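Lay summary. Proteins are chains of building blocks that fold into shapes, and those shapes determine what they do. In this project we predict the shape from the chain. Here is one chain we studied, written as its sequence of building blocks.
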Amino acid sequence: MKHLSILATFLGILLLFSNTAYSQWRESLDETWEQSKEYGKKGWEQSKKYGQKGWEQSKEYGTEAWDSTKDAWDSSNEPLSTPERTPQQIQVDQKEERFREIWSQTFEQLTKGVALVDDIKQAPEHSFFSEDKQSLRKDLNVVLDKTLVLLEDKSINDYRDKIDQLNQQISTSRTKIAQYREDKIVAPKTHSVKMTKAAFEEQIADEKGNIKHYQDGIDTIKVHFKERLQEIGVVLSLDQVDILLSRVDADDIIQMSVVFDVLKQITTQLMQLTQDSGEDIKQAKKYYGMHVVLLELVIYMQQTYINMVDTVYIKKIDSIIHSTIKTRNNATKYLSEEADSKRIASYQNNINALNLTLKTAKLYQKNLNDQKEQVEVAQKVVRKDLNLSQNTYDTVEISADLLSVLKDSKNSFDALMSLQVPQIVPFENIKMQQKYQELSKLLKN
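And here is the predicted shape, written in a compact code that computers can read:
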């Protein structure tokens, strides 16, 4: 019994000790688990942080790489191709791809245009309580505006934008050079807190290098621009491209040329649809009605240009001419009253500069008026085509007759574009060309 009592006591102590040890072990385990969770949580948050940072950097680097690739792609203006494809085939493929992109949206706008053309014929001249010809004409003009936007060639617009950006960078570099030259005057010859004269010379040299780089970029873009214009039927030399790009109406002239080129493609497609419609005169007239809307579009585009020349460009150039004459008259008056030889020389230099401005402004005015007259001549031809097309649309009941007129109209777009291509002649000298470009900036503003 005594042994059993001792054994029981020992087991009790052992059990108590085991419970205590277990409790301590359990607490230790729980604490370790909580610490593990905390460390795991911190680690996860850090992993997420680093991972997110890495992801953002990857996206940034990926975006930069993609942008660089796109820039290289755009600057080359040539898609990746297999050796078997000729440059002519590549151009055809690009043209077809662009047409596929705009066709469905253009078709939708032309459908709306046909409905409005039909409504305009039935509407009264004036009405207070319903739509009249004038209000419906405004609706048609909205459709024509939307269609013109669809027909714009973004690649040509990109060329103009890139040239403008590079010219702006050249202007910025020239401003920096002028500032560095001014700062260099008071700069010390040896090292100090301020930059030395040599340091300013280095920065001036760097900016001159930048200007050379930017100018090389402009020259390359102009070559691609010339090639793109040639694709749509506008054949110009690089010198003529320079002159065209210096004009304030360059965007208008290019847009009209681009639109004519696309209209030929659209007319070809309408011819195919008309032919496929067979004896279904209703469908055939629908497609022919779209051709009527295309002619309305051409007249609208031409009239927009004519109005812009008359109401904006010519008025601004007239203002420049009058201001220049007034300033020159003042200089001539002061010169006649001056006895000092240095002042006389300065006034004479001013008068020479003003004479150059006046001569260039008058040349600019002539260029604008000549181009406007060319567009007006072309517009008269289109109006005759439109009158015939509207009459045919109203009277013809045989789809074959519509197809015949469409074929003639397709050929007329080439003739119309040739009528509107400006007569571009070289400038007398580089000073006149520079002054012409300066006047363009004034006219744009």
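What the prediction tells us: The two ends are 119 Å apart (CA to CA).
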